[in-house]
Amino acid sequence: MTEATGEAASEVLAPSPGKGPGRLRTLLSAYAPAILVFLAVGFAWEAAVAFFRIPKFLLPAPSVVIQRIIADAEPLAQNVFVTMQAAVAGLILGTIIALAFALIFLMSRILERALFPWAIIVQTVPILAIAPLLTIWLGFGIAPKIAVSAIITIFPILVNTVRGLRSVNRQVFELMRVIGASPGQTFREVRVFAAMPYTFAGLRISAGGAVIGAIVAEFTGANLGIGTVIVNAGYRQDATMLFSAIFCSCVATIALFYVVVALERLCLFWPDARLES
Amino acid sequence: MSAALAQESGGHLPAISIAGVSMVFDSPSGPVTALKGIDLAIPKNRFVSIVGRSGCGKSTLLRLICGLVRPTVGQVTVDGMTPDLYQRDRRFGFVFQEATLLPWRTALENVALPMKIQKVVQPARREERARELLKLVRLQGFEGHYPSQLSGGMRQRVSIARALSYDPEILLMDEPFGALDEFTRQEMNEELVRLWQEQNRTIVFVTHNLAEALYLSDIVVVMAPHPGRVRAVIEVDLPRPRRAAIRQGGDFIARLARLEEVISHD
Fold first, then answer.
1. Which of A1, A6, A185 lies at the smallest CB-CB distance from B117?
2. Is the N end or the C end of chain A the one with fewer CB atoms within 10 Å?
């Protein structure tokens, strides 16, 4: 909009987060407790390992893990990258499939009743059992990983999006009819926006699941990826490497989660759009 | 038929005529008669209120007029057409109980929505016209605000501006100020009368606030519940322009008492 309205908006708008030192303080009070606990656990762990002389093959101290991550930074990064490629591709594919089925469910209650049990089957089937099957069918490359990630992704997004598409108040439909909107226009102007907050709530759940899916697929046979690093370290009983791999995949998953959150901030541009904090 | 009805209501040509309309809904506990034997003529360019207890079918009647629901029996004629035809050719203005704004659209975009949907005004003109309308409802400076950043009264003003954006000759209002506090409600009453007097329109206004109905209207239609029916059609011949102060006058209070009597009489 014009500058004038922008100014007016920022004036009246907003339980304002404030500027300068005020903002820093809110950031600090938001993150300080978590950071403090994190550091405390790290120190306690380090101290316990030293005090009880716990051997490295049982429980390596955080400092040892960090040293290992630095030493093996390059192969770790490479493997994480391979896994994340599959996870992101699976997340995108799963989202597309979920949105397509959400539309089908919206258009036909009968199809929803017919197909929804399959969504539940896909969701409840043990992923560890499906992964080797998909590896048999799709080979040792990226394909089975994408498939497993997609399967995990679908359900939360599908269920949430269907709810969102149906979350529109009856009066809004009456309004659209009175002003002469076609069903297509009502969909574009109303349903898409009503569904978006729900879709993103699902997407946030699915983001973590997608990475887990890719790692699980790598367990059952893959040439590269953090899952293979974990399996190999397990065979060698290399606890330090296991912790390093766990740490790296956690960081990558959190990064993906925040990419989704950033995308959500971009798409849900209006106030009060997001379902939870 | 319509001529006779028009005669009844003071010789004006009816904008809306409702003849022998009954409305039966199916419910889990059997059919429910929402409206029974409604005959009503609403003259052109008059301000008509429909009052009555909740459950007397006021809102249903409004939805019948604009074709959102269809009568089980009887006929609704708007300007000589069926509601569907009228809706296709000219469109009703409708103001809902809640403002019913799209949360993802700014005040300006909400006002411009019908023009965008109907593609009647050129895109460049839409924004200009929406600005004028927001000014008309005294919301200049709030164009870029989202609905959640506006107060209840402001939101309802936006929705009135939206209803006026395509210049409907008939404006249907379904308890539009019911959710507002008394102070804001009276303010909105003033605004509405001002808007109505600036440009002639037929307004059908549903409310359960009798003082509001009396203050605003030329004609008050009193409805009774179970089944919903018209109990009385009362002409309000208070001179215009009316000032807010007449609400405290003896004449107004006496009329209010009589109106209350008509409603509570069972």
1. A185
2. C
Asked if residue B135 is part of any domain, the answer here is yes
User: Domain segments of chain A: what residues?
Assistant: 18-54, 65-267
Q: Which helix (H) or strand (E) holds B45?
A: none
Ramachandran class of A14: left when φ > 0, alpha when ψ lies in -120 to 50, beta otherwise: left
**Is B105 a domain residue?**
yes
| Domain count within chain B | 1
Q: Which amino acid is at B206?
A: V
What span, in angstroms and rounded, lies between the C-alpha atoms of A241 and A149?
24
Pairing of strands B170-174, B93-95: parallel
| Contacts A190 to B, Cβ<8 Å | 102
pLDDT at B105: 96
Question: Which CATH class, in words, describes the domain spanning A65-267?
Answer: mainly alpha
* Structure tokens that stand for A246 in this block: 């766990």
User: Are A172 and B98 an interchain contact pair (Cβ–Cβ within 8 Å)?
Assistant: no
What average pLDDT does the structure give for chain A?
89
> What is the helix (H) or strand (E) element at residue B228, kind and residue range?
none
Check if the beta carbon of residue B19 is closer than 8 Å to that of residue B175.
no
Question: Are the Cβ atoms of A180 and B103 closer than 8 angstroms?
Answer: no
A96-130 pLDDT, tens digit per residue, is 999 999 999 999 999 999 999 998 998 888 888 88
Answer whether residue B43 is part of any domain. no
Task: Yes or no: say if B9 and B219 are a contact pair by the CB < 8 Å rule.
Answer: yes
Paired with B49 in beta bridges are B205, B220
Q: How far apart are CA B43 and CA B164, in angstroms?
A: 20
- Residues of chain A with pLDDT > 70, as a percent, come to 92
CA dist., res. A178 & res. A176, Å (int): 5
Q: Is A273 on the interface with B (CB under 8 A)?
A: yes
Rg, Å, chain B Cα set: 19
User: In angstroms, how far is CA B224 from the centroid of its own chain?
Assistant: 18
Say yes or no: A9 contacts chain B, CB-CB below 8 A: yes
> Tokens at residue B54, please?
């909740």
Compute the distance between CA of residue A64 and CA of residue A77 in angstroms, rounded to an integer: 18
Between A206 and A123, residue with greater pLDDT: A206
ipTM summary value: 0.86
Residue B106, in any domain of the structure: yes
Q: Any chain B CB within 8 A of the CB of A173? A: no
Residue B34 CB neighbours (<10 A):
23
Q: Using the predicted structure, report yes or no on whether residue A11 has a pLDDT greater than 70.
A: no
Count of CB atoms situated within 10 Å of the CB of B203: 25
Question: Which of A171, A272, A273 is facing B100, going by the closest CB pair?
Answer: A171
Confidence of residue A198 (pLDDT cuts 50, 70, 90): very high
Whether residues A8 and B141 touch (CB distance < 8 A) is answered with yes
